[in-house]
């Protein structure tokens, strides 16, 4: 169990290091790096499934601590998966916009008078502005999606941690007063998380409404 844990933790650190190279990788090689990252992430998820099975076989006095460590690894790799998907979405959007721009620039225009160049320049400028606005909205939506996913992951992690803390508290024989304080704090954290998710949704809606 310990060997698999350290191996998986090392793989997560390697993926984090490779993620930092995505933005600086050329177009010809970025697909290979993305495929390599996805394969590594899939392998980490496979290791986590095995670790969850092994954690259930641990002695009762170690089981809760082992499960918490596995949950932390799962939380880390879920964030890496979300970051990779957001990068792929932004890259695809930029590629589509670049192709549209190239098609527009290479299009042949027929002119009937000397003033035609003015509307063409205005059209190109308008198209450039729209592309910039779309790129900004894509980045904002990607960031909002990442935030919401992170909040959902934190909620799931807090739920699991809360349940495990209660189990540990029962095992240690803590007083009812301490357990009520733990439950009260968990409820407060839940409301704060929900408020953050709602606020993020409102901001994204307003940006889409006024920039769209």
Automatic annotation (TrEMBL):
Compartments, record wording: Endoplasmic reticulum membrane; Golgi apparatus, cis-Golgi network membrane
Annotated GO CC locations: endoplasmic reticulum membrane; ER to Golgi transport vesicle membrane; Golgi apparatus; late endosome membrane; SNARE complex
TM spans (from-to): 191-211
Gene Ontology biological process: intra-Golgi vesicle-mediated transport; protein transport; vesicle fusion
MF (Gene Ontology): SNAP receptor activity; SNARE binding
Protein's membrane topology: Single-pass type IV membrane protein
Record key words, sorted: Acetylation, Coiled coil, Endoplasmic reticulum, Golgi apparatus, Membrane, Protein transport, Transmembrane, Transmembrane helix, Transport
Function: Involved in transport of proteins from the cis/medial-Golgi to the trans-Golgi network.
Stated family: Belongs to the GOSR2 family.
Protein name: Golgi SNAP receptor complex member 2
Organism: Oncorhynchus kisutch (Coho salmon)
Lineage of producing organism: Eukaryota, Metazoa, Chordata, Craniata, Vertebrata
